[in-house]
Amino acid sequence: MTAQTSTPRRATGFLVGCAPLPIIAFAALIFGAPGRLSCGELTGYTPAMVELIGACAPARERLGSPLHFSSLGGGFGGNYQSGARAGEGLAYGRLDVKGPSGTGAVEYQLSKQNGQWVPTVLVLTFPDEKQVDVKACTRELLEKRQTEAGLAQFRAQCAAGRADMCLIIGRLAKASGKADEAASFFRKACELGAAEACQPSGP
């Protein structure tokens, strides 16, 4: 009589259960929703989304205020990529947002430009499948912020010695009826060597 040997079953569950806790924690931090959310808090795109959602009346009426993102909701797929330039980047994915009056899921894609997170996609879907395009809802606010960010960038470049930027800001100020501000930028451009800015009436 030949003795039979049997191959033991793989204890897959046992191996997973016995994985070192630091490895599990690290994997959760990198791949899981809490890690994505932590990255969002660090880079600033989740606070930017909360602010935009709160500024959209239809979304605010459904969710209430204050708003926050669920640390476990939204599944996988959110990500953040740093851009080639310092302070620039791209964020995309899906997160669950909660308020005192309701919940929703946010599909988002944002890029950071001139220090501002600008949404390409920012759509809020409620449990009853109704949707709000938060980007369209907050268009005026976004345009105002982008204009302010652009002007701040021009001012910084003017202060760094770029006469062409001083001329641009001066012309914008002149068109807005801000004569004193325009004169100061034209004077700066003149000092930097822009001859057209040295005319008594300005360029």
Question: Please, could you describe this protein's structure?
Answer:
- This protein has helices at 12-17, 21-31, 33-43, 45-55, 57-63, 134-137, 139-159, 163-175, 179-191; strands at 68-69, 79-82, 89-99, 102-113, 116-125, 131-133.
- It is of the alpha+beta class and 203 residues long.
- Strand 5 and strand 6 form a beta hairpin.
Give a summary of the structure in a few sentences:
With 203 residues, the protein is an alpha+beta fold.
Backbone structural class: alpha+beta
- Unreliable segments of 5+ consecutive residues: 1-19, 26-34, 73-77
Fraction of residues in helices? 40-55%
Q: What does the main sheet amount to?
A: 6 strands, antiparallel
The overall average pLDDT, rounded, is 79
Q: Overall 3D geometry?
A: elongated
Annotation field: number of helices: 9
The radius of gyration over CA amounts to 26 Å
Note the run of SSEs as H and E: HHHHHEEEEEEHHHH
By DSSP, the count of extended strands is 6
User: Gap between N and C termini, in Å?
Assistant: 108 Å
The share of residues in extended strands comes to: 15-25%
Topology:
Elements: H1 12-17, H2 21-31, H3 33-43, H4 45-55, H5 57-63, E1 68-69, E2 79-82, E3 89-99, E4 102-113, E5 116-125, E6 131-133, H6 134-137, H7 139-159, H8 163-175, H9 179-191
Antiparallel strand pairs: 1-3, 2-3, 3-4, 4-5, 5-6
Helix pairs in contact: 2-3, 7-8, 8-9
Properties at a glance:
9 helices, 48% helix, 6 strands, 203 residues, six-stranded antiparallel beta sheet, elongated, alpha+beta
